[in-house]
Structure formats: structure tokens, C-alpha cells
Amino acid sequence: MATSQLSQLRWAPGGHLGHLLGHFCHLLCHPCVTCLSPLCRWCHLAQVALPGGGWVATSQLRLSPLAVSDSGRYRCWARVGGGARLLSREAHLELAGLPVFLEEPQDLELAVFTPFSLRCSARGPPEPVRLLWLRDGTPQNGLGDPLARSPSTLRVAGLNRSSSFSCEAHNARGVATSRSAAVTVVAQAPQNLGLVRGGPRWLEVTWEPGASGASGASGASGASGASGPRECTVQVSPGEPGRAPALSRAVPVPPFALRLGGLRPFSRYLARVACRDSRGQSAWSRWVPMATSEGAPEGPPQNVTLDFLGGGRARLRWDPPRDPLNGILRGYRVGYRTLAHPEVVLDVGLAQEATLDLGSLGPNATLRVSPYTGGGDGPWSPPLLLLPPPGEAPLETHLVRPAPGPTGGWWPALVALVAVGTLALVALGALAARRRRKETRYGAAFEPAVRFRVRSSYGRRSAQATLNRLGISPELKEKLRDVLVERHRVALGKTLGEGEFGSVVEGTLHQDTGVLRVAVKTMKIAICSRGELEDFLSEAVCMKEFDHPNVMKLIGVCLQPWGGGCEGPPPAPIVLLPFMAHGDLHSFLLCARLGDPPTGHLGTLWGHF
What we know:
With about 600 residues, the chain is mostly beta strands. It folds into five domains: about 5-95, Immunoglobulins (Immunoglobulin-like); about 100-185, Immunoglobulins (Immunoglobulin-like), CATH 2.60.40; about 185-220 and about 225-290, Immunoglobulin-like; about 300-385, Immunoglobulin-like; about 460-595, Phosphorylase Kinase, domain 1 (2-Layer Sandwich), CATH 3.30.200.20. The protein is built from five helices and 40 strands. Strands 2, 4, 5, 7, 8 and 9 form a six-stranded mixed sheet that branches. Strands 11, 13, 14, 16, 17 and 18 form a six-stranded mixed sheet that branches. A hairpin with a 2-residue loop joins strand 32 (about 365-375) and strand 33 (about 375). It is elongated and about 170 Å long. The termini are far apart. Residues about 1-15, about 35, about 45-55, about 215-225, about 395-410, about 440-460 and about 600-609 have low confidence and may be disordered.
């Protein structure tokens, strides 16, 4: 059929069409034909084919619901048979309605007085669209302000209470309202987190709460007062901050302090804190480094062995502990015990062996070794029973009887000559032994005698040499003439009491007139400068002058080198006091009140040295 048979295509209705977003629209096309129904199709101006009618005389396009993308110009075309395609005139579809939000403000949680921003965006048609910001229902700008242009960003310097924010979109069709964004204000992070004091397995920390702002619900008018934190949580983490916390503990506040237990001795930690009030939890404070103090070793020395050297001597050896030391190893203590005598404890320093004189040992003697640090003594090694080596006689004195020989003739003279020579050798040996005992009096006051392998020895002039090396003033050295005691004259025994800064052990002072039983007061903390040593010695000079029956008199002071030669720290002073057989005054009065007056040896007790 020819194209002339298709007289026209017309709209019903035609021209300019206006509709609202979200509604529906019908577009009709009426081709006028003289014979068979034409083939009719719809197309958009952008040449997009749209579904429409079929082989009908009237074609209808339904758009439902109407969206922004449906607006524009439309045409329909028709063809009869194999003829040419005929286009209708254009129809303009314009959509209009309330603004549509492309971006809305979102919820936030932040600390008091923390700056933040919110965004809002909307579009028509119809345009233009203006935005109005609301805080708790109160407008924050006008429709003529630059802030009203879409998209819009509201910047807030900070809040002291929680609030809600929303935005209104205005155009010619009306007003649309966005979602309400809740901005929750919590307290600021706590400040000044610090360590007050600590021990081997605990840390005591304090902090200050951050600003919390004003209380009150969002949108409430006339909110007043301050809402303080009700609970704080302290986290302690070993190593780097990225690891999981080793300990997390919540504590009611105030007071803003906490003692954390269950920690490892001599270890570094990182701590932080956050507080919670009625509105939520604050931000975490920054990580603060802190460390626990030294503790006692957890295990005894390993591989304790005893080797017999012959001649009544034996060497005790051991290896360092395998378990954690919980501090810096300061030395070892060797303990000796028999069935008939109490245990004697001797400090051998950092040496890992000790040579024992077995001449005075009895049967069933035991030896053991213990390490110690600045935090205390570690456990003892298993007792080692002292037995003679295989093939040797027990440790006891043997009586040697001379074999019978001939008599008479020149034998008596020979025997006399041998006897004189033997006596001379014995006398020389006795003199040599006496001289040797005077030079090695350290450790000779208790049985068995222990001789140590040390880096330096204590000579008779060691104290004066030390004072000369440290540059002590001549006036003070002259005053110390009657106070300073040579270190080799003092032998240490068992420990009588210990405190935080030192310990008191039983000892003997070898004087020219005899042996004096004393209490030896040692220090765990080294003196770090010459000035501190001079101050200590000056006080010792003053205490030497005390002379009253009710005041314990100072016997003297010795200097204990720390090792390391001339470059080492100043020597540690050792105070010599009278040995108080009945202990301290508190124990004496307590026993007397209970009707049990103290008798015998109680030792010198120092509860808080």
C-alpha cells in the first residue's frame, strides 16, 4: 500500500503535556488510514524505541510511575505495507513535583567541642531548589543565603550536648524534608594518664576525666548541669599498640585511679583509658608506656655438680637458671647445712663456681644454690648430698700408727734428727697457714670455709686506696680513721632480715683483740656519685660519737666494691652494728606481754629497712 494512503498522524491530546512525578501518563497516537491498519511504533527523541500498540488504528503509550528520566519530547511513526515511515509531530512531556534528595545528613558520634560537617543535596524539577538547615527544629540559615544552594555543606565548630540536624528542600511545587541525623556528643578522652607507683606484678595508675559538656536529651530546652563519667575502662597491652590488650578492667569512678595486678615482672607495657557517662563512651586516651619493677627469679640454677679436687677440697659448679629471671641477675647464694648445724648462706656474687674446704665437714652434709636479683631471692636448687668419691675413704680423720722398727745403735739419733726436722717443717707450715688465713679471712668464720674465684681481692689498704681514688677530702679521711674498717676483717653469715632497700646479715669482725659478733647492714641500691658517698661517710662519723646506754652505737663502716675496676660505680657502704641477741624492741615487748620473755638467739630484725 502506498504512503499516500496514510493521511496523517495526530496526538490525542497533542502539544505540551505537564505531569507530576510518581503519577502515570497516557500518550495516544491516531493514524488515519484508508485501508488496512498501519504498523505503528513509538520512539523517544533520543531514538530509543518504546513499547506501544500493535496493529491497531489507535496506539497508546502508558508511563507509570513517572520518573525524572521520563521527561522529554516524544513522537510516534507509522508504516503501511512496505512503504515509507511517517513521523508525527513532537509532544513535550514535562514532569514537576517536590524536590528529590540526592544526599541526606548522616548520624555522628563525637567528643564534646569537636568540629564536624554535614552534607545535603536535592534536585527538581522544577528548579531551582533551595535548602534550609535545621538544628533541633531551629533554622540555621535563610533561603537567600549561599548555604541554601544545592549541594550544601553545614560546618559546625563543636557541640556541648547531643542534637539532631535535618534539611528542607524548597521549590515551586512545595517543601521536602530529609531524614533527621542524630549527632551524639560524648565526653572527651581522659587526660594525664600516668604511673603513680609499681611493683613486680602490679601497676597503680591515675588519670583525669575529659570535658563532658552539658547534659540533657536532644532537643530539650534549658538543659543545664554537667554529666560526669560513671565508669572508666583501663587497657594494658604488652609490646606494640596493635596487639590485643593483655588486660582490660572497668572501674567505677571517682576516684580516677586503679591498681592493675597479674602483670609480668620487669616488663614494659602500654596503657590507655576511656570513660563512659550517660550518653556513651568517650574516645580512648593515647597509649602511655610504663613498666613493672624487678621480681625474684622463678627457677633455681641448673646442673649443680660437685667435683672433688683432692687434698680436702671440692669445687661446686652450676649453670644459670632456665626460667625467667624477672630482672637483672645480681649474683648467687650458696647454702650449707648439716644435721648438727643450722644452714649457713654465703654470697658468691656472679661467679658460677665455689671452692669448698672439706676438712671440717661431717656426714650427711647438703649444698644448694639460689640466684637473686634486685627484686629478691629465687628458689633453691635441689639439695646436693656431699659424699666422698668412689674409692676414697669417708671424710673423717684417720689415725696413722708408725710401723715397728729396730732399736738401739744409731737409730735413736736418726729418729731424733728426723723428729727435729719434722717439727721445724710443721712450725713453718703453721706460720704459712696463719699468714694465709689472715689474708683470706672472708668466708673463714663459718664452716665449711669457702674460697671464691674473684676478679679482685681485698687488701689491707683497700679502703684507703678506694678513698684516694674517689678523691675524698683529707679532712674527712682523717675523721674516718676510727670509723672505716677494712673489708677483709668482716665475714658474712646468714640473713637476719630484709627490707625494700637492703638487708641485715649476721657477721663477725676480726679485730686485733679478738672476734666480735656483729650485725651487718647492707644496701641493695648502689651509691651513684662521690658526693653521696661523702654525705654517707660524714653521717657515719657523727654516729660514731653516739655514747648512751639506750642508743645502739655504730661499730664501723666498710666499703664493698661493685667490681669493674676504676671505671665502675662508687663502692657500696656496709654498716657494722652491735648484734642484738633478743631482736627488735617490738618483738621483745610483745613476748613480754604474753608472758614469754625472749631467750636465746633471735637475731637482729629490721622490718622496714
